[in-house]
Task: inverse folding
């Protein structure tokens, strides 16, 4: 059973640990991470979720996503999830998230990695990922419109592409 640390509204661990699926109180939060790999052709590596996956089955998603497990920090979870889902190694130890999106029950840290990845060398986690491919921002917009991609706000997709070369909200 996957366990999560619980945080307060300031992202400070409360010392409470819950099992995945437990209902959280209004003042309790958990942490999620996403990793977005973007190549030199300005394409995002996307994954096709398995049809039996709970939560957005059979839809395309950003490169990697998952919950931070009890005892981990955001960077450790990003490193672990990237390797678990795609068999791709990258150490996020000294990397801050590019941006964080707050949601009703937690915090979602987004890491953007610029890399050239050979899709044939990836080892997909069969329990979660059925396929991967590269996609442009326009292709992802179309997939969202056609309900083939998780229905992210388009501004989140924009942020992934716009912030690949920098941190911060101002364009360089």
Result:
């Amino acid at each position: 059973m996957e366990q999560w640390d619980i945080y307060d509204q300031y992202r400070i661990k409360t010392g409470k640990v819950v099992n995945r699926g437990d209902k959280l109180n209004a003042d309790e939060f958990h942490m999620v991470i996403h990793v977005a790999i973007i190549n030199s052709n300005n394409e995002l590596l996307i994954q096709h979720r398995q049809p039996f996956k709970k939560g957005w089955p059979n839809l395309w998603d950003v490169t990697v996503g998952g919950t931070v497990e009890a005892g981990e920090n955001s960077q450790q979870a990003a490193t672990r999830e990237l390797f678990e889902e795609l068999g791709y190694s990258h150490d996020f130890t000294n990397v801050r998230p590019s941006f964080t999106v707050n949601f009703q029950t937690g915090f979602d840290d987004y890491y953007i990695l610029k890399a050239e990845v050979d899709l044939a060398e990836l080892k997909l986690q069969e329990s979660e990922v059925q396929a991967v491919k590269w996609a442009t921002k326009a292709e992802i917009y179309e997939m969202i419109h056609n309900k083939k991609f998780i229905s992210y706000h388009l501004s989140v997709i924009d942020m992934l592409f716009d912030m690949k070369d920098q941190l911060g909200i101002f364009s360089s």
